[in-house]
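Design job #97: recover the sequence.
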């Protein structure tokens, strides 16, 4: 299976060519919906267990400051729909991006997360009635990936081509 190299913007590429930092199976794993990766008991479309304990721990750590102020925050922000994971790479890491929102309030209250597969760290951006709040101290290199993704949230990533 060969990877297609696509330059998306600002030097981002699809999982790299040849020596891919993320195997095709891993790529498919992270393309699961957010709730499948962060909550036990879900399987992906192929019937495989999708839950990822490290992904869940990273999300729990990311929202801990918000949960300390509102113990129901995690339940609320994950109560609505989420996107499937968008997997991409740049020279610094391999990232998985999800959008999730509170049920019936997606236009006003949502979160964008970016999970670094290598470091097992997650950063995010909370969008609360037009106000943006970075979460997890995103670095200067990563924050633009969150904000730029708002305008173009449907990137063609982790694309494979049969030999």
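Job complete. Output follows.
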């Amino acid at each position: 299976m060969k990877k297609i190299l696509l330059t998306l913007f600002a030097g981002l590429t699809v999982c790299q060519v040849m020596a891919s930092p993320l195997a095709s199976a891993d790529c498919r794993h992270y393309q699961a919906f957010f709730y499948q990766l962060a909550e036990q008991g879900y399987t992906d479309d192929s019937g495989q267990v999708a839950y990822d304990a490290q992904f869940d721990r990273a999300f729990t750590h990311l929202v801990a400051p918000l949960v300390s102020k509102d113990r129901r925050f995690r339940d609320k922000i994950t109560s609505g729909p989420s996107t499937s994971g968008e997997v991409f790479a740049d020279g610094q890491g391999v990232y998985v991006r999800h959008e999730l929102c509170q049920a019936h309030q997606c236009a006003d209250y949502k979160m964008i997360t970016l999970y670094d597969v290598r470091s097992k760290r997650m950063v995010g951006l909370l969008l609360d009635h037009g106000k943006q709040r970075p979460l997890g101290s995103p670095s200067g290199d990563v924050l633009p990936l969150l904000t730029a993704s708002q305008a173009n949230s449907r990137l063609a990533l982790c694309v494979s081509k049969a030999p």
